[in-house]
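Section 3.1: Structural characterization of target chains.
Under the original work plan, the team committed to producing a structural model for every single-chain target entering the pipeline before any wet-lab resources were allocated. The record below documents one such target. The sequence was received from the expression subgroup and is listed exactly as submitted; it comprises 720 residues.
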Amino acid sequence: MVPPDSQPFTGGLDDADERRFFALSRSLFAVFDYEGVVLRMSPSWERVLGRPLNEMIGRSFVEFLHPDDVELSLERLRQEATNFHGLPPIENRYLRADGSFVWLSWDTSPAMDETSVWCIARDVTAVRQRAAQQELVAALGRTALEGGSEDELLEAVVTGLTRALQLPIAIVLELHPDNTLQARAGVGVPFDPEAPAVALPVDERTLSGRALVAGRLVLSTDVGPQVHPYGYVKKYGARGAVAVHIGKADRPWGVLTCADSHPRVFDEGEQRFVEQVAHVLGAAIERREVEALLQHQATHDGLTGLPNRELLRERVTTALAEARGRGTAVGLLLCDLDGFKDVNDSLGHAAGDAVLQELAVRLSGAVGHGGTVARLGGDEFALCVVGPSTELEVLGVADAIVRLMREPFTLPGLQVPLSTSIGVAVSPTHGRDASTLLRHADVAMYRAKSAGLGWALYDAGIDEARSERLTLTADLRDALAAERLELWYQPVVELRTGTLVSLEALCRWTHPTRGPVSPTVFVPLAEETGLIGPLTRWVIGEAERQVRAWRSAGHGVPCAVNLSMAAVADPATSEALLDQIRDAAPDLTVEITESWLANDRGQAVVAALAEAGVSLALDDFGTGWSSLAILASFPVRRLKLDRQFLVGLDGDARGASLLRAIADLAAALEMDVVAEGVERTDTSQLLQEAGIVLGQGYLWAPALPAAELAVWAGWSSQAD
């Protein structure tokens, strides 16, 4: 009778029967003496360990154990020798003839003759490997989320794969847009990350091309042609390989290849495991790319790709510190296009954008080594010039820009002549910090524009802007007191149907002598002079009154108002405003920006408003210190994408991917997404394809006075 696998046979057979039993058994039976010498083994051991029986019988089984498992196994024999019955199974590693190892779980029992030990073993390698593979995938996921470098993640992938699959070779190759592959990490093959990329014809005729197209390629005998990634692995003894693409099938990031030095058939489970690792790696890389793109969006202008105001401040601050150490100067030039508004009004925003892009190229060529060109907004640019010794050298740069502007700007079928006004401030004479230099360069630019000088150097004795600012502040205070401000309303619509969904209230000021004053002028002025509190209270009161009037007439549409951090910065003066917001919560949504989380006061106000049931929206997403992680920190219900996300969206796969990623993340966080600044039908279509549902912009309507908005919405007629 053959004993069952779970109950080792312990005696009763004569020597001949025992030999027949071992010869016929398919199980892993063995008999050891108490020193570990193999006395009997069933033929199945040859298959599992890849060694002939006559090579193993008569030798200590310790010779075939992994060194780390020897002591555990010898201790088990010592326990059997002292007649410990009912001992639990133990697991250890046995070395195969090819250098790999298998995990065996084995039970032991003393033989009847009390001089030897019976053993029945079970191959648990697959179970162990699956556990190791699952742990590797989980560990890689943790590494990706913890924010280590990309190189560290790639190294963890190739190292983990070779361990989990007991392979000598693994390599990650990055696919560049020009169809070249670059080694990024590897085990078992020497590689130089700085080596030139190798050209790869990605098509159906090459093995690596099929890996990229089909997603998985398995070679179970020889590796094949000397084409990457196989040129790498074959040179170093590979005889079998599996390769999968990393990233999306339609836009792979690269190839992950594992190889064995022996002819090997990778089973379906192993292939799926490699694909799983490649999927985790691809998702991590895509997430990092989106984060990097968001970070770039936060510090760069979307139209020109130049640094924005915040990055300019950082670079000016750094340049000033370095200049102090060298005894040199830093020049700051503010450039404003003369007549640019006429280009936008007569030729359209597309023509205006083309002019700004060409201007960015011209200015970048004039700034010199180590300098910075930034776009501050609209048609205003700044240049940080580092390394000059005198003001005269900085003025030479200003003069060169004036000469550059003598060349007209080229538009399709049209030459557009424009000029520029440049304000110049130079450290340390005109300021020792970035804010002071920016302010003084702005004053000088206003002087250059008003006097038609081309450029002007800051002169503390002729600071015309200071008086202008004081006058405008007094006029704004009077306008608030006399309620000469207006609220206009811009619709937010469903992209697919154009149906009105909500409104945004926007403050407008028409000066009695200056005419319309831009909110980009009077809102910062209100923030800096303490008028932002009274201005915000008026906006909320007027918006609440108008929304309730519309609701009484049967037109209940939600309305949003913007809330500046400056309005609530001082707890002593802002409590009345916050109470007013809480009272208006059923009628109004409050729009805030990411900068609210930059200090404790902002975080506290956001939390208090959310707790009071005030509906919050995150405005101007992508113009501050954006990241994917920041979204989860805001208790907001709506995310508003800044217009810069739409710039150059046509045909831009990265931009479209970014929009899809933001739409998916917002959906996961149960947020609505509104795209601001939509001006064209094809832009609306692209947004819909990316999963964006709501939009706001001139395609439907600009901001309108309340009466005109009611006509636009069909709530009344002009006659009414």
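The two ends are 104 Å apart (CA to CA).
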